[in-house]
Amino acid sequence: xxxxxxxxxxxxxxxxxxxxxxxxxxxxxxxxxxxxxxxxxxxxxxxxxxxxxxxxxxxxxxxxxxxxxxxxxxxxxxxxxxxxxxxxxxxxxxxxxxxxxxxxxxxxxxxxxx
Amino acid sequence: xxxxxxxxxxxxxxxxxxxxxxxxxxxxxxxxxxxxxxxxxxxxxxxxxxxxxxxxxxxxxxxxxxxxxxxxxxxxxxxxxxxxxxxxxxxxxxxxxxxxxxxxxxxxxxxxxxxxxxxxxxxxxxxxxxxxxxxxxxxxxxxxxxxxxxxxxxxxxxxxxxxxxxxxxxxxxxxxxxxxxxxxxxxxxxxxxxxxxxxxxxxxxxxxxxxxxxxxxxxxxxxxxxxxxxxxxxxxxxxxxxxxxxxxxxxxxxxxxxxxxxxxxxxxxxxx
Lengths: 114, 272
Fold this sequence. Notes:
heterodimer, A: mainly alpha, Protocatechuate 4,5-dioxygenase, Chain A, globular, B: Protocatechuate 4,5-dioxygenase, Chain B, eight-stranded mixed beta sheet, two-stranded antiparallel ribbon
């Protein structure tokens, strides 16, 4: 997997209206220069927000990709939850570094309601 | 001139972008607190505003990530996010390249900083400016601390960085105000968005107000992540201001957890 290049693509996409236009025109073509696995390409083309979060994309990058696709805020949060439920814990990146324990576990440990 | 103002505030994108979904009383309380902060900065006679922020992959990425970066331009554009999403119109904020140059030169006596002659403000700076200098009539010196992509700079070096800001501010003839913007505990843009560890926040703010250096720099990222989320890494901006305040005591003017804003919304300042 190549989380770095997934995030680099999204970072550049978030910054460039031209790249956004190109992405809307031909998603496969704009992804070609990046070293990505088939799974990552599929997630970026679909787009599969839950899978991208599971792969380890930082939410500060991912939320703008979701907004680009007109995904409403609560829907964005739910898609990430579904991604964890369907694919398992975050594989890599900042959320995996110290052990992402999931929404419910966080809530219990912090003494808050989910 | 000696630093004329030192404070901190929240910057979450929901503060503007999802304002319509917030409890109206809580939201108005925060907006009023921003207005009071804006007035305090204006009353200080500040001729420039240094904003210590924790940007979110808008200008800096893991291909070349600086721990510390300082803007050095005569203007800065923003917000980089979609205006409809953030609900802040595109703007051009004034900078002061010469003042930045003098700042950076002095700071480099004790800390290594990257400089940036181009910088697009994201919500980390755009949201505070939206409330504090809505007319964009005060030159900005943007400063970024990497709080997003580990490895992150240790907190004791953040303290030295804050001391360098203070030394630079005191060395220039202009009256300079300083704000730090960041969250305390929060899990922004993740499935845990909206979680806020209020007890943790209040303990941190107590330490911040007492300017308790030893307690502030004792936090470690693993513990912060567990108790305060990855958003807690942004305490670096608050601690920088503590160091710049050089022992001054602080006051929390506003603190209210507002889940739809994904943070315990805060304004606070030091009595310089």
